[in-house]
Design a protein that fits this description.
heterodimer, A: about 325 residues, alpha/beta, Rossmann fold, 2 domains, five-stranded parallel sheet, four-stranded parallel sheet, 9 strands, globular, B: about 425 residues, TIM Barrel, about 30% helix
Amino acid sequence: MRHLLSLRELSAEEIETLLDAANAYAEHSGLAAPALRGRTVATLFYEPSTRTEISFELAAKRLSADVVRCDVDRSSVCKGESLLDTVRTLEALGADAIIIRHSAAGAPHLASTVLQAAVVNAGDGMHEHPTQGLLDLLTVRQRLGRIAGLRIAIVGDIRHSRVARSAAWGFSRLGAKVTLVGPATLLPPDPEALPARCTTSVEDGLRGADVVMVLRMQLERQAGGDVPSVREYAAAYGLTEQLLAKSAPGAIVMHPGPVNPGIEVRDEVASGPRSVIAQQVTNGIFVRMAALVWALERELPFVDSRSSFVDTGTRPTTNGQFVRERSAVPASAADTE
Amino acid sequence: MIDPSAGLDRAADVLIVDGRIAAVESHLDARADVPVIDAAGMIVAPGLVDMHVHFRDPGQTHKEDITSGAEAAARGGFTAVACMPNTLPPIDHPTVVEYVKSRARSAACRVYPIAAVSKGQVGQELAPIAGLAASGAVALSDDGVPVASAGLLRRAMSYASMFDLPVIEHCEDLTLSEGGVMHEGAWSTVLGLRGIPAASEEAVVARDLLLAEVTGARLHVAHVSSAGSVRMIREAKRRGVTVTAEVTPHHLVLTDESVQGFDAAFKMNPPLRTPADVEAVREGLLDGTIDAIATDHAPHAPEEKMVEFDAAPFGVIGLETALGVVWTALVQTGALTPADAIMKLSTAPASILKIPGGTLRPGSPADLVLIDPNRKWTVDAATFASKSRNTPFQGWTMTGKAVMTIVGGEIKHSDLEVEARV
């Protein structure tokens, strides 16, 4: 049993292993079937979610696990049951893995301290969203054939974003250069703390980017007044075709969803030819399958990359094949930039 | 024997008669019928004085009460404590002062009430300061929250100075720290927890130093945690501003990195800050900018702390670990002499609050601590006398322990391997 709590705490090798397995599931649906037969997976979502919760459920079902959903709004949580008592209850009911989404950073960590069951973080406050990070990595790897050496621009409300944190750790671990772009009040309080460069200039941040990841403006997580108005934010940082032209030829556009239409990204960009948003959603199932199998320490599928990895993107690698880059990435954030 | 109030640091005997120090001599011959405690190899010092504890009594006695808190104090070598007024109801009226004093009569150490600056501690109007002073409050504070209004604080300071009461400030600008749960910096960024910037403390320290200067009143800055606060207090003292300051044991040894496991045992306000801040508060302690070490003993029940970091209340307990932390981290390492440590833990806080204690001068109350400077022990919260367990030092190995605590000539705690011989 292993907990998946953050990408910061995973090595490059562990991340690669998870991506390889997810890619194998993506390409060979037959690999999945019985891996978690007889295992019970519980989802415990304290915050609303569409794609994450459903894709975790689908992932568990495709692996033949029994899936139960603890509906927070109709459970004993409403009677004031604490997080720890709730997860202990789920474990006593037989859960082998508990998938937790919570508005408080560290809630999955806390749960993991009292459980034998595996805890998978499905997003905790402003901390991390590791499976989102993995699906972002997988999507880029499928589209562009590699991670190492790419320039990744993440644009938006970085300060309140667990997606940005997981992406920054994941992409930098695998050797990409990450730039965080947003107004000063939405950048991290300590820009040095993350393995990324920070800039308030969207032109500067997008210049030469291979990947433009647009974040959702987290209206519900803002204390209020971080920017003068959503309109002002959208005018300066909303991703338009014009801005996208600053990025590298063939750059792809990502968004973790759900999109605030017309705020952080124009509709014609979000649904345009560079957008890989739908593929991100689909990949969510595959990385969550890999995450569950990894957490429960069952055997992960492996497919020889030379014969099976097909580059589906617009930029084939030089030799026409997927080339695995296992550059030595330092473990600590401070060493990477 | 160490007595910073008399510059004493040598082997000596002490005679206690009727609860008071009768004599301190190089050698005293005891009459046959007088009990003798052999403290060879131990340090005998004035009992420790903690000028900042929360005993939750009245109102939240599931966390602590005056009896259990005083027992924890005695175990830690403290013979006197001053308890903060953020109780339910707050200590903002002479009747509540009387209640604390009445509960204190049977407690294991001396317990002095600190009274509120404002009625209800809500920062709107002055508490009845004259009555509070007359009934025995030793200081005024709205601790737990800052006095947000500079105007109200200025009036409180002016008024309090008529009664020679210090005003103890919890310095925090809530508009800068709102929603914060840990120090704002590298770790809050990584952990995705909302930050409490050092500036939220420093902005109010700056304001309060100005008001102390304007009013000439005695300002005491509670739990100094940031380098900027130390710098400003140092500068103000140099100019003669009547300010004193304290630091907690945890701010002397722990940093914000401790929060990375999301364990609310490391959640307190002010929060643990950076290594540079720890360095600065240590420097401030050594150069006299910071006068006293105070625990900010803040008990919370386990079920209150074993929750999401955001949801847990601020505060850690400290009475039973303070001496061990100071001895292990500062005295054993040579940063602080034993006499300086006693100064910071006893003589200085007693003198700031103008309460008995902090001295072994003949005639003063026989409040003493025996410290075994070499006793190694491991912190196990399960054995604490406090009702609460929320220590950030669980499992730490300490060197230095209070092995006997004597209050008014009575042994209130003994862990001495050689017992008294009668």
